[in-house]
Amino acid sequence: MDKIDIVYLWVDGSDKKWLAQKEKWAAKINGEQITKTRVAAAERFRDNGELKYSLRSLAKNVPWVNHIYIVTGFNQVPKWLNTRHPKITIVPHESIFPHDALPTFNSNAIEMCIPNISKLSEHFLLMNDDIFFNRPLSPSFFFDANGRAKNIYTYRKTRYKNLDKLLKKSNTYRSTILLSAKKIHELYGRDLYSCSPSHGIDPYIKTVWIKFRRSPKIRNSIDKQIYNKFRTNWEFQRWLFTLNQYVHGHATFRRAHPHKSGRNIILDAIYNATHFIST
What we know:
By secondary structure, this protein is an alpha/beta fold. The protein contains 9 helices and 9 strands. 33% of the residues lie in helices and 16% in strands.
């Protein structure tokens, strides 16, 4: 592959104009102040300054990245960012969303519109601003020699026969994962309920994403979802497109294992070195 771009989602949750809009729309939708609802609680939008250090880690450990896109709304731009840098582009929500779907405070809705970024490369990485590159990585960590995405997942035993019961007691994040797996199960008969996304950097193939996004199988659902101002328990997230890549042979899955930190430092070190990521 020739190029690999990176897309960040970023918001400054302390911006007074942004806060006023969030409160306004929350009141319209929920009849209450936004800070009282967990899906739009302040911690979901808080900017702790991680983006600066994530970009520094990127420059040091993955300098081969072609271009960096930072998706944000409300004319927000990090004050410290050099916007003249040739490898960085600020992507306003207005350039990827239907005009009447804005403003949005919904990260799931934003993810659905990522391939609308102008000049985005065929192979790209999607990540949040609280992720860092802690060691040098090559493009082969994210894509194999055939251009297939190499996605990392965590295992969580889930029986889809009890899905409705599970959905009722799941939080918003977990619900969107389960619903994404449910859609893949309905469409292709693949049981992937036990796979969950590993909070990290997700590789994607743009044309594969767009083809599925435009498919009558999901198009209407996604078209409606991007109008949700805040996240709900009844929508998809980007995991849907990860699973779609996988079932069509455009991706491989690697299982992430949690690090052990027990009394036996040597055995833990051996385990972590050999099991942190397995195929």
